[in-house]
Amino acid sequence: MFPFFSYKTFFFLLLSFPVFPARTFPDPLTELTVDVRNSTWHDFGKFLDAGKGSEVTGMSELKKYFQRFGYLRPTPEMNFTDFFDENFESAVTIYQKNLGLPVTGKLDSDTMTQIVSPRCGVSDTTHSLHVTRHYAYFYGEPRWVGSSPMTLTYAFSPEDMINYVALPELKTVFQRSFSRWSSVIPVNFTEAKNYSSADIKIGFYRGDHGDGEPFDGVLGVLAHAFSPENGRFHFDAAETWAVDFKTQRSKVAVDLESVATHEIGHVLGLAHSSVKEAVMYPSLSPRTKKVDLKIDDVQGVQALYGSNPNFKYSSLLESDISSSWGLPLERRSSKWGTSLVIGVLILSLCL
Ligand SMILES: *[C@@H]1O[C@H](CO)[C@@H](O)[C@H](O)[C@H]1NC(C)=O
Ligand SMILES: *[C@@H]1O[C@H](CO)[C@@H](O)[C@H](O)[C@H]1NC(C)=O
Ligand SMILES: *[C@@H]1O[C@H](CO)[C@@H](O)[C@H](O)[C@H]1NC(C)=O
Ligand SMILES: *[C@@H]1O[C@H](CO)[C@@H](O)[C@H](O)[C@H]1NC(C)=O
């Protein structure tokens, strides 16, 4: 629908204060403890159970988190206060609905636990006009267009790769990630030799790498991918990418396959899901693998591309019976609805 635009999506790993994660941990390898959540919780405990009318020092910083992820209207000229006002209450309420949490309008422990857990950085509220079930699409529902069955080619950058994971091993990881999606939709992914003509271009980059979205070093942004039909698929080379946690012992190691699988969902046109178990859910813990597509992921991508003739729901149902059914459909619109989505568009558009 909007062939000139593509959305950029991010995968974040947030271990400390979410707004400036990289800056608060200049040396995360030494500062982080095994119990990441517990040490982070220490800083956030003061907000626990704050609700309308509360005033807590530092609340303005927390509001920036909600603004960053599309829940509070951007206010460039006005600074946030530490006062828990009506606007913030409705932001918290929408956040709780979007993430499937109990809706209390307060910073209760479920909500605070969610806030401190690592997450993907694309705004959740890109959903608001296009929710069908729990999965969601980018505005305009862009997808790859072609005759079905479709074959998309992918290629690895000849220069911009990491050297501590052997290339054959790395390619196997991507093969597995792509095949999870191709087993459910009539789309094949094949590796192409020619990088410049491939549909999907994969590379690992440091800092400013020419697409207007510089990477930020260790932690913070992990990867970003462009929505259909752009195909750029970039990983932050500064992260410690893990293929096997038995050999990669770093506490900040990030599972390559989990991030690749999540980002391929974005490459195909899926935004974030509110189903916790889904691959497209916006958070992932460090040293964690989350690679199996759930019913919600499958329904979302099949609504865009149709079903692979060989796909059988029964195989998924056995493992996923509880997670995706039964919740009523939520229209995730907010009172400022349209203008919020436009705000998100402006922030995330990339020509
Ligand atoms: C978190 O830290 C507190 C105090 O330091 C400790 O009592 C508690 O057991 C820790 N929780 C976990 C899950 O490790
Ligand atoms: C917002 O904060 C900045 C930096 O603290 C300050 O320079 C600016 O004057 C403030 N703006 C308003 C409208 O208070
Ligand atoms: C994918 O490719 C294989 C062989 O390359 C072919 O047999 C199969 O029909 C293709 N499937 C789709 C859905 O394109
Ligand atoms: C790779 O693709 C580009 C763009 O389609 C083309 O110009 C170039 O000749 C191709 N290179 C090779 C080695 O096939």
UniProtKB/TrEMBL annotation:
Recorded hits in InterPro entries, A to Z, give: M10A_MMP (IPR033739), MetalloPept_cat_dom_sf (IPR024079), Pept_M10_metallopeptidase (IPR001818), Pept_M10A (IPR021190), Peptidase_Metallo (IPR006026), Peptidoglycan-bd-like (IPR002477), PGBD-like_sf (IPR036365)
Q: In this entry, which stretches build a coiled coil?
A: none
Q: Which residues constitute the catalytic centre?
A: 263
- For the ligand (Zn(2+) 1), the binding residues are 209, 211, 224, 234
Q: Peptidase metallopeptidase domain: from which residue to which, for each copy?
A: 140-307
Query: What does the cofactor field's note say?
Result: Can bind about 5 Ca(2+) ions per subunit.
Q: Where does Ca(2+) 3 bind?
A: 216-217, 236, 239
According to its UniProt record, which protein family does this protein belong to? Answer: Belongs to the peptidase M10A family. Matrix metalloproteinases (MMPs) subfamily.
Q: What is this protein called?
A: Peptidase metallopeptidase domain-containing protein
User: Which organism is this protein's natural source?
Assistant: Ilex paraguariensis
